[in-house]
Amino acid sequence: MSIADDIPDYVYRDFINRLEEKGFEYLSHGSFRRVWERGNIVVKVPDNHDGLIDNRVEAHAWRIYRNRPSKMGIVVAPCRLLPNGCLMMVKVEDGFGSVPVPDWSDMIDHDQVGVYKGRAVAYDAALDLHERLEWEKEWGVESIFFHSEYLDRCPHLRTGEKPDKVA
User: Fold this and answer.
1) Nearest alpha carbon to residue 69 among 115, 110, 116, 104
2) For the domain that residue 129 is a member of, what is the CATH number?
3) How far, in Å, CA of 163 to CA of 120, rounded?
4) pTM for the structure as a whole
5) Which one of 70, 138, 150, 158 is most buried, counting C-beta atoms within 10 A?
6) pLDDT digits over 92-133, tens only?
7) How many domains does the chain have?
8) CA 156 to CA 163: how far, in whole Å?
9) Confidence at residue 3, expressed as pLDDT on a 0 to 100 scale
10) Whose CA is closest to 114, among 83, 75, 155?
């Protein structure tokens, strides 16, 4: 499956309808996922194979690290993978207010870091976890975007060493 292998709209149509019936509203979209929100919950619905992998990576990172930092110091937002491949995550407030900006925030693509319960967390760290390479190999999957473009821009993900500066 390649990055061009979009998931047909009908696959998640009923699920999205149920979300909207329950009061979830469309929030935004990224390259691989669309996001709905209600209260302090967001649901990330994959648009393609890479979106499915991103959801799996974020859920796996939360299961492993919980409130502890990853090997590179990144703290991820609480989330869980739903049986249909969508990701349910807490809603993270943009900005930091009185919470110190963590050193690791510049490692997160598009600075997708905010505050949840008084601490800084990444709410979209799927592409920025060094462990992803190991997990993809273990799962027998490979994100086309991550391997063809992203790793070239972020070589620190191959080494697991904190970069001096992220491109």
Assistant:
1) 104
2) 3.30.200.20
3) 19
4) 0.91
5) 70
6) 998 888 898 999 998 898 789 999 999 999 999 999 998 999
7) 1
8) 6
9) 46
10) 75
